[in-house]
Amino acid sequence: MAVIKSVSGGAPSISSIIKYVTQEEKTNDKLLSGVRCSVETVTEDMLSTKHFYGKTSGRQYKHIVWSLSPDEVISPEEAHDVSLELVAKSEL
Known about the structure:
This protein is of the alpha+beta class and 92 residues long. Helix content is 36%, strand content 11%. The two termini are 22 Å apart.
């Protein structure tokens, strides 16, 4: 059974969390995508949205991690598709 959790702490800014989650050893380019933002301009998109709504202080982002048990085997592409579905259906 998959476990989904919101990770707190970590990177102090949007640009540093984007840099962290897009590290080559963590993912590959074909699995980078966005919902209501562009991969190429995600940091700028997120900062513009925060400024537009006056939300420039406090929590800057949510980092969601989901893990599978060892007996659940899916491809990285399937995991990506499921992640996109979850984000699209949520209010993150």
